[in-house]
């Protein structure tokens, strides 16, 4: 009899322990579900991405002619470049710091009439601080978000200060070797301690310089203000020829994914530096390629 009672008590203990264990596991599962459900969804920054055209793409044409091409490609953002002749209706004036106040207003009215926004201009390399001030004044007049530039090392502090005063960021551009900013590390050195200086990531030139664009972007994470979208025919060759985006050696899906992961919210400026007189179709194809690939990102 005592043995039977002991056996029953032992069995009851085992059943009770199993029940408690199951309840603990159930609570743990519920807690995990609650935590997962409570985790905020990561915002889709690609909704803020802008596809634009660096007007250098159409540097064989006047600004007015180039703007018509941008409009026909259904692009609504541009990055202007100083020195481009304005063209019809503007006399002999060129885009730049010498433009008269009335010319600037007329140019803004033209942009507004087409629903096109000038997000940036460059690439500039002012020799003096006074010249920098004139470019910042131009940027303020035109309402740009950033200026693409290659400032001298001894200008970093003053440029950063002026950028803060005017509320316009400075995006350092990378050209092929032996340019001072050919490597991402040199850009990193410039932006250290300078909160208004970042990067204009020219993925084509990085590839010409023998650098993997994705690795470069990782180094500059959080400091990329704009991107120059171009493709080349050969990697690690400073003189490599341009080609239409997606037709060369650069792997753009990985670039887009990295920028999405970083939370980049700026503009991609198409910069086609080949087929100069007939590159509108290349721009149109790049726009389509961009939207197609961005829609596939995770």
Concise structural overview:
With 298 residues, this protein is α/β, with parallel strands linked by helices.
Features:
15% strand; alpha/beta; 298 residues; disordered N terminus; TIM Barrel; single chain; globular; eight-stranded parallel barrel
Detailed description of the structure:
It is a single chain. With 298 residues, this protein is an alpha/beta fold. It has 2 domains: 1-39; 47-294, Alpha-Beta Barrel (TIM Barrel), CATH 3.20.20.150. Helices cover 45% and strands 15% of the residues. The protein has helices at 2-38, 63-72, 101-114, 129-142, 156-166, 184-191, 203-208, 213-219, 252-262, 280-294, and strands at 50-54, 77-80, 117-124, 146-149, 169-173, 197-202, 224-229, 231-232, 242-243, 267-270. It is globular. Mean pLDDT is 90; it is low at 1-22 and 31-36.
